[in-house]
Amino acid sequence: MTNLPQCPSCGSEYTYEDGDLYICPECAHEWAKTATEVAEATSVVRDAFGNVLSDGDSVTVIKDLKIKGSSSVVKVGTKVKNIRIVSGDHDIDCRIDGIGAMQLKSGFVKKA
């Protein structure tokens, strides 16, 4: 089974290929195959205030974050240096002093 993208218009998973186009049978939306690849390549990660984040940036945590499976907490104002942008729900990979390696959501940080 092939992995076709979901429809950008209605979110349907029942898309199909027709030449150089993807077509959604539910809303009849058509889009080019290259448009999907360009959109994935240009995805931008932004912090809670809309600033663009990139690899090597420093960020500050804006909310107390409980660490799953532990009793420790990442406090407000904790500065994290040298972040790395990754794909997924938690889009920042970093190392926090005193805690170790972890992943953060970009909505809970601001660019320092």
UniProtKB/TrEMBL annotation:
Pfam families: YjdM, Zn_Ribbon_YjdM. It comes from the Bacteria. InterPro entries: YjdM, YjdM_C, YjdM_N. Residues 4-32 form the Protein YjdM N-terminal domain. Residues 45-112 form the Protein YjdM C-terminal domain. PANTHER family: PROTEIN YJDM, PROTEIN YJDM-RELATED. Belongs to the YjdM family. NCBIfam families: phnA. This is Alkylphosphonate utilization operon protein PhnA. It comes from Pelobacter propionicus (strain DSM 2379 / NBRC 103807 / OttBd1).
